[in-house]
Each structure stands twice: as C-alpha cells, then as structure tokens.
Design goal:
Length: about 55
C-alpha cells in the first residue's frame, strides 16, 4: 500500500494474449497499465451496479 493509504495492490493472473493486447493498447494510448486497469474496473462496476440497482 502506498504511504498515504490511497492505494492497495491487486494481483491477478490473465492469459498471455490478453496481457499482450492490454499492454499494446496502453502503449498506443500512452497510458499506464495501472490507469487502464483502474478505468476498466470503475467502468465495469458502474455498469454492473447500474443494472442491479
């Protein structure tokens, strides 16, 4: 966790092809993998929570 307590480590395993696609996308978009994962998680949760609420 970061010193200010705002971040927590998240370790997951994904397929090699998905990792490669994600890294390539991040490179093309000039964004970090960390930012991409956070955006993807937030977007997916917003969508899913909107469907169930």
């Amino acid at each position: 966790m970061s010193e200010d307590g705002k971040y927590a480590r998240l370790n997951v395993e994904v397929g090699k092809d998905l990792k490669k696609r994600t890294k390539n996308y991040c490179t093309d978009q000039e964004m970090t993998l960390k930012d991409f994962v956070a955006l993807a998680l937030e977007s997916t949760l917003d969508e899913l929570e909107g469907e169930t609420v």
